[in-house]
């Protein structure tokens, strides 16, 4: 099934299950930080690969990307993107003073990967329970580079014979006194061959 064949009802259903999944992920991240994380209602878009970096501030924006493969009954990728300054604030909140300062240390990298693992696990667990599918996150990988380079590393694996991706995009930011302390994007990119599996599982819910 091609991504462009999605109708409005299917797009709305994908948006709703992603909203629930990211709600669980935001709760897990909030518990980790001890600070409420606020979500923007997710959007579902079919986007050309070349346009993705513009969604996060431009191809030359320095970012940290944590990527995991989604394995099991349906496959895909989950990409967590933080601007570098936001990643540093996240590390400072988790590791205390000195966390995330200067070049990322091995501890910083390990912590960011664990954040990605926690977010992905909460998201996939919620979706798996709703859709009655086994969805398992892989071991996370991390890249710190310009947004264009980070996105390219992920999307080249999904390209194959197509130049578009189906993205479930959610924005989040820290709440409370430090409203803008941590901001980021989460992109869920189902593999083309897994879209039918996900849609069929959603149909069985209705």
Question: What would you say this structure looks like, in words?
Answer:
This protein has 206 residues and is an alpha+beta fold. Helices cover 44% and strands 27% of the residues. The protein is built from five helices and eight strands. The protein has helices spanning 8-33, 84-95, 106-131, 147-159, 192-205, and strands spanning 37-39, 43-48, 62-72, 76-83, 135-137, 141-146, 164-174, 183-190. Strands 1, 2, 3, 4, 5, 6, 7 and 8 form an eight-stranded antiparallel sheet that branches. Strand 7 and strand 8 form a beta hairpin. Helix 1 (8-33) crosses helix 3. The model has no long low-confidence stretch (mean pLDDT 82).
Q: How many β-strands, per DSSP?
A: 8
Series of secondary-structure elements, N-terminal to C-terminal: HEEEEHHEEHEEH
- Average pLDDT number: 82
Intertermini distance: 21 Å
Helix content: 40-55%
Q: Structural class from helices and strands? A: alpha+beta
Weakly predicted, low-confidence segments: none
Number of helices: 5
- Give Rg in angstroms: 16 Å
Morphology: globular
Report the β-strand fraction as a percent range. 25-35%
> How is the main sheet built?
8 strands, antiparallel
């Amino acid at each position: 099934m091609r991504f462009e064949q999605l109708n409005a009802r299917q797009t709305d259903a994908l948006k709703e299950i992603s909203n629930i999944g990211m709600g669980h992920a935001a709760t897990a991240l909030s518990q980790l930080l001890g600070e409420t994380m606020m979500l923007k209602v997710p959007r579902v878009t079919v986007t050309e690969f070349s346009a993705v970096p513009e969604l996060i501030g431009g191809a030359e924006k320095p970012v940290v990307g944590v990527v995991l493969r989604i394995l099991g009954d349906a496959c895909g990728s989950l990409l967590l993107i933080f601007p570098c300054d936001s990643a540093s604030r996240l590390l400072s909140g988790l590791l205390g003073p000195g966390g995330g300062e200067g070049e990322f240390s091995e501890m910083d990298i390990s912590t960011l990967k664990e954040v990605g693992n926690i977010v992905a696990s909460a998201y996939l667990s919620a979706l798996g329970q709703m859709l009655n599918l086994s969805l398992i996150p892989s071991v996370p990988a991390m890249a710190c580079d310009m947004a264009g380079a980070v996105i390219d590393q992920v999307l080249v694996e999904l390209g194959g014979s197509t130049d578009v991706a189906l993205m479930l995009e959610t924005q989040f930011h820290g709440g409370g006194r430090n409203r803008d302390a941590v901001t980021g994007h989460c992109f869920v990119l189902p593999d083309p061959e897994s879209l039918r599996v996900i849609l069929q599982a959603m149909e069985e819910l209705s």
